[in-house]
Amino acid sequence: MGFCDSTVGGWLCNRVDDFRSLWNWRAPAAVASCSGGNADERCDAVEGVPDPGSLAVDESDLTAEGFAVYNSQLHFILRDAADCDLQEPANLKVTLNTGYEQVPMNKNESGDYVAAVPVNYWSSVCATVEDLDRETEAEKCLYNLPTVIPNNDLCQTQPSVIPGTEIIYSTREVDAGESVSLSIPADRVVRCDGVNATEPGNDLSLFFAAINEYHPATMQTFTGQSYLSVSIDTAGLLPGYYEVGLKVVDGRTSATKIIDATSGFVVRDPSSSTDIPLVTIGNLGYAYHEGETQNNIECHSDDPDATFAWTVLRPDGLTDYFTGDLIPTYSFDEIGDYDFKCTVTAGDGITTNYEIRSTSVYPASTPIPILSIIAQNSAPVNTNVNFQVGVPETGTFRYFFNFGDSASWFESINYNKSYSQTGVYEVRLRAELISDPTVTFNLNSAHNITIY
């Protein structure tokens, strides 16, 4: 009879197992498990899935302040990875996925898995642990990554707009046919080395991304301060909410930074006599990674006395409820599709309207494309209209257009299309992951084009 089979020994071994489970602690393989030593039972309990351990960065690669220098080598260390029976030998394959590249992690003399990659602007880094014998896998992700700082010797990093900078609008609501002016303080647009757009020879260009076009900004001076500004004509636009993003280009290196829309403006139909309120959802992306949070999801209406109610249908079948024109913060904690519905009740308390906008949530290891359509908003019948993918990543994704006049999708990043009949057509865009075509991404807002 073994020690763990005796009355006292069995009680002590059970307490040891309780301690191991509580603290996720594992003794070396040489110490026998007091769970009867049955590795099969342990594996059955976790369905054969390996234990991914813990993922960390090698802090010796960081600066004294704890920063990671762009394009320098940073080592990631996966500790305590093991197969489901927690015993050696284990036939494991470990891969590091940064969203930009996948590299193997090799086991060192200490039993840790290590890989070095050049520092980039990651949102997360994940290690995938595959048990080659049982054909199972598990993933460990690191979201709290070191702050990345420019490499002043290289300075090939993206220019940017200083975080917290807001677009200044001449008005947030405009009748169709009128113009709206957009501005950013020029000293808030910076190169990777800190030089801003007011300094001589900076070679920076700013574009406002609105109405599916990039509008180049020019330098303007108001009350002694310099701004990068543009005026946008809304003639021919359909009533609705139009989001505004930004693009910054460093002309020395062509390094480009795309900044997603966080605000926008409303175009009204001045000739409309309908009492049905306009409703549009803004500041909601088409895709997120699991665990990400979106702040300030907006619902807009042209009725100043409107009230707002939200429902969010989650992938787990539950529904979240909010009131008011703003959801201050929302966390995407489940993988799958979320349907956001904003219902607007007009000032009369009776008339309602609503919009539904969907977004999809993916595992942290899945790369997400930047989807946008660049095209004109109107064209004569039987003339070619050029449609482009705003920021194509052809090495990672395939892109498909649907032009609104049939159910067909056309693979392209640059397509000329003519329409044989007048009308308003909704053009949509989707992307597929080349490495796994079952993973798709759909832009959750259409590009409307009027054919006359």
Task: List descriptors.
single chain, Immunoglobulin-like, 46% strand, 5 domains, 5-stranded mixed beta sheet, 2 helices, mainly beta
- How many domains make up the coordinates? 5
Alpha plus pi helix count:
2
Per CATH, what is the topology of the largest domain? Immunoglobulin-like
The percentage helix is under 10%
Contiguous uncertain segments of 5+ residues: 5-13, 15-36
Q: Main β-sheet: number of strands, strand sense, barrel status?
A: 6 strands, mixed
Q: What would the average pLDDT be, to the nearest integer? A: 84
Reported CATH architecture of the largest domain? Sandwich
Backbone CA Rg: 27 Å
CATH superfamily of the largest domain: Immunoglobulins
Task: Give the CA-CA distance, first to last residue.
Answer: 91 Å
The CATH C-level class name of the largest domain: Mainly Beta
Instruction: Work out the strand percent.
Output: over 45%
Structural class of the helix and strand makeup?
mainly beta
Query: How many strand units?
Result: 38
Specify the overall morphology. Answer: globular
Report on this model:
By secondary structure, the chain is mainly β. It has 5 domains: 1-37, no CATH class; 48-149, Immunoglobulin-like, CATH 2.60.40.10; 155-269, Immunoglobulins (Immunoglobulin-like, Sandwich); 274-365, Immunoglobulin-like (Sandwich); 367-452, Immunoglobulins (Immunoglobulin-like). 5% of the residues lie in helices and 46% in strands. It contains 2 helices and 38 strands. The strands form 10 sheets. Strands 31, 33, 34, 36, 37 and 38 form a 6-stranded mixed beta sheet that branches. The chain has a 5-stranded mixed beta sheet with strand order 13-21-20-16-17, with no helix packed on it. It starts with 6 loop residues before the first helix and ends with a strand. The model is unreliable at 5-13 and 15-36 (pLDDT under 50).
